[in-house]
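Render this sequence as a predicted structure.
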Amino acid sequence: MVTLGNDIITVSVKEHGAELCSIRKGEVEYLWQADPAFWARHSPVLFPIVGAVWEGKYRVDGKEYPMGQHGFARDMDFTLVNRTETEVRYRLESSEETLAKYPWPFVLEIAYRIHDNKVDVIWEVTNPGETEMPFQIGAHPAFYYPDYDPDTKERGFFSFDRKDGIEYILISEKGCAEAGVKYPLPLKDGMLPLDTSSFDKDAFIIEDSQVGKVTLHRQDGTPWLSLSFDAPLVGLWSPPGKNAPFICIEPWYGRCDRAHYEGEYKDKDWMNVLAPGERFSSVYTIEVE
């Protein structure tokens, strides 16, 4: 575990999955502490897919490969490659093990940088191979509800950098999307009320770069934390039916298959493609109040 700190916040990261495990401001912990009774992770990085592939397999030139939900990077040990007082960087490179699941060489670097009350989460994906490399990458950070009381229904609010007209899609079956069927996000005065039934139908998937900032508010309306991102999709989720103490805000470059998808991997919805030698870079920022 590596810990970074300044006068305002302290963060901790582990080599396994290069996963962010703690964001503290004083005595307050913002990041979910992975109680397996609800969800045994903190903030996994999703690579080389986001979500599920239909029937747990995908196709490359007609050949089928197995792939578990959210890919394999979150369950692998990364190598620490650099550390300063304010930043830590990890690397995962393709191997015989990964090539058996995902037939492209890759280099994935994940870094965390702190400044003031913010954490920048940095992703860099490089294609060292000789052919085009399709991939997806996404975040899955879970945050404590600030006013959690298991005996009450209300959980606070979300606000967005867009005040109306936001649409979302849902998961339909086997972890895959009901793509093409859109629902209006039920905002009230520009806010999304959150309660124990908000995610009874699983995650809200907001596509098409409709929003670039999501803020979690306390029950009195004051802001608690926010995520800012350039990703074209964001997922909002808390485990259905569990009355969980946390909620996830998930910027994604990609998403699960649409239900019953049996096409080629490279033709999945929201696929990214790197040419040989090309690098993809992205940053999202967590800001705590």
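Summary. The first strand starts at residue 2 and ends at 5. DSSP finds one helix and 27 strands in the chain.
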